[in-house]
Amino acid sequence: MTAKLTPHGGSGTLRKNSQAPRQRRRAASCKGAPQVEDRRHRAVPWQSGFGDGLSQAIDMIGPPIILGLIGWFLDSRLGTGPVFLIGLAVLGVAGVFVRTYYEFQARAARHDEGKPWARRRP
């Protein structure tokens, strides 16, 4: 009798290293169904910087948009052209660039702290 093979070369059963969650044994004092290990919230090294990048993107986009909306509101109430809209949006962009520059300088200084090239000579 021969085993039925699938197109992928397996025997048609679930592969050995399944993607299903692993089951942990409960302590002898606990009765009931086995506990399921949740692996969704485990920190993965290559994903560790995504949250920081997303927050920086929101920090760069938010102020110009919010200030632009405030400028649009002021322009509509005062009956002026897009003076406040453009002015406040440009102010928001300039503020974001200045804050990003100083934040980068502070991070670089913290990173270089104690390194040979950052030591000051007496």
Summarize the structure.
By secondary structure, the chain is mostly helical. The chain has helices spanning 50-78, 83-112; strands at residues 23-24, 35-36. It has a two-stranded antiparallel sheet.
Structure description:
This protein has 122 residues and is mainly alpha-helical. It has a domain at 58-110. It has helices at 50-78, 83-112; strands spanning 23-24, 35-36. The protein has a two-stranded antiparallel sheet with strand order 1-2. Helix 1 (50-78) runs antiparallel to helix 2. The longest helix is centred in the C-terminal third of the chain and has 30 residues, at 83-112. It is flat and about 60 Å long. The protein starts with 22 loop residues before the first strand and ends in a 10-residue tail after the last helix. The mean pLDDT is 75.
How many E strands? 2
Q: Work out the helix count.
A: 2
Approximately how much helix is present in the residues?
40-55%
Shape: flat
Strand composition percent: under 5%
Assign the structural class, choosing from mainly alpha, mainly beta, alpha/beta, alpha+beta, or little secondary structure: mainly alpha
Order of helices and strands: EEHH
**Average residue pLDDT:** 75
What does the radius of gyration come to? 29 Å
Low-confidence segments, ≥5 residues, pLDDT <50?
none
Distance between the termini: 85 Å
What's the layout of helices and strands?
Layout: E1 23-24, E2 35-36, H1 50-78, H2 83-112
Antiparallel strand pairs: 1-2
